[in-house]
């Protein structure tokens, strides 16, 4: 059967060409994935509701974010100038991750062509993350009784500090972050399970660390769903990472995570996470490794 995939044109908004965040990658990524359309079943998300956002974010912060009254300091910390289109975008992205998780629970595996905004905190934005889609999705599903226990596997090069803090009082939502230690954010949070990597790890060293950790963690947690942040800023060419993974290393990593989950019968919802190369075609090719790995898992009969 086709792989469920989630996208919305609103994932891309206009930003100045000089802006450091590669916003255009979401449109370019969808265009690149058109080559796989015969293997994908596309779904379009709705905006996350205010009630869903309030499961992890404070009403005062949401008033400012949704109403356009974030002060200049808050906008600088977010990394974006405020606009109605930006608010629409982050609500669609969050709705996309929630829909991806719901599709994963139904079909076993599903992917979002955006998502992974793991630096957003309860009352402030940070590091290009305004709403924490992973935490909103986790708490929404747990509150609705869709799952009793879930695991967030965050392999972005940066620690998922916002996710860790937002879910610290949610024992049914277990957070795992494997990230480069000497990197943003300077002040780390405490995930349920953290691995702070040395800078400069290559494919084999990185994957060896993951292999020594992930299976045992999954078997210990016994989640009913895994939310997987497949950030590609661990790539050797990324501007903001300090790892040395190759395209093949990304494919091996994503395939390993998917197959480790699905071989245990655990549904997995994947989001693409961070990636900051100015070469958008190269960057989107890296993000596409997640989709290629998922299709590969299907062909191997484990999805």
UniProtKB/TrEMBL annotation:
- List this protein's GO terms for biological process: epigenetic regulation of gene expression
Q: Which UniProt keywords apply?
A: Hydrolase
Q: Name one Pfam family in it.
A: Hist_deacetyl
Instruction: Give one GO term, molecular function aspect.
Output: hydrolase activity
Where does the Histone deacetylase domain start and stop, copy by copy? 19-282
As recorded in UniProt, coiled-coil segments are: none
Superkingdom, natural source: Bacteria
The family annotation for this protein states:
Belongs to the histone deacetylase family.
Protein's UniProt name: Histone deacetylase domain-containing protein
Query: Which species?
Result: Spiribacter curvatus
Lineage of this protein's species?
Bacteria, Pseudomonadati, Pseudomonadota, Gammaproteobacteria, Chromatiales
């Amino acid at each position: 059967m086709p792989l469920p995939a989630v996208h919305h044109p609103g994932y891309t908004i206009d930003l100045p060409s000089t802006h450091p965040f590669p916003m255009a990658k979401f449109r370019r990524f969808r265009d690149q994935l058109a080559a796989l359309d015969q293997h994908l079943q596309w779904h379009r998300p709705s905006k996350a509701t205010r009630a869903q956002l309030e499961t992890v974010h404070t009403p005062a912060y949401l008033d400012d974010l949704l109403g356009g009254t974030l002060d200049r300091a808050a906008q600088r910390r977010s990394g974006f100038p405020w606009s109605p289109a930006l608010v629409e975008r982050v609500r669609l992205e969050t709705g996309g991750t929630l829909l991806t998780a719901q599709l994963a629970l139904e079909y076993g595996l599903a992917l979002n062509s955006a998502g992974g905004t793991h630096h957003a905190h309860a009352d402030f934005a940070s590091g290009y993350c305004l709403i924490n889609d992973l935490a909103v999705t986790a708490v929404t599903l747990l509150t609705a009784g869709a799952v009793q226990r879930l695991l967030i596997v965050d392999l972005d090069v940066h620690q998922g500090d916002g996710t860790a803090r937002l879910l610290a009082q949610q024992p049914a939502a277990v957070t795992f972050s494997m990230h480069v230690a000497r990197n943003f954010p300077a002040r780390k949070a405490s995930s349920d399970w953290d691995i702070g990597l040395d800078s400069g790890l290559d494919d084999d060293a990185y994957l060896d660390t993951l292999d020594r950790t992930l299976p045992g963690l999954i078997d210990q947690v016994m989640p009913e769903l895994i939310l997987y942040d497949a950030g590609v800023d661990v790539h050797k060419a990324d501007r903001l990472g300090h790892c040395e993974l190759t395209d093949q290393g990304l494919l091996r990593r994503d395939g390993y995570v998917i197959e480790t989950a699905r071989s245990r019968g655990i549904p997995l919802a994947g989001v693409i996470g961070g990636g900051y190369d100015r070469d958008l075609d190269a960057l989107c090719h890296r993000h596409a490794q997640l989709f290629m790995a998922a299709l590969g898992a299907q062909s191997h009969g484990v999805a």
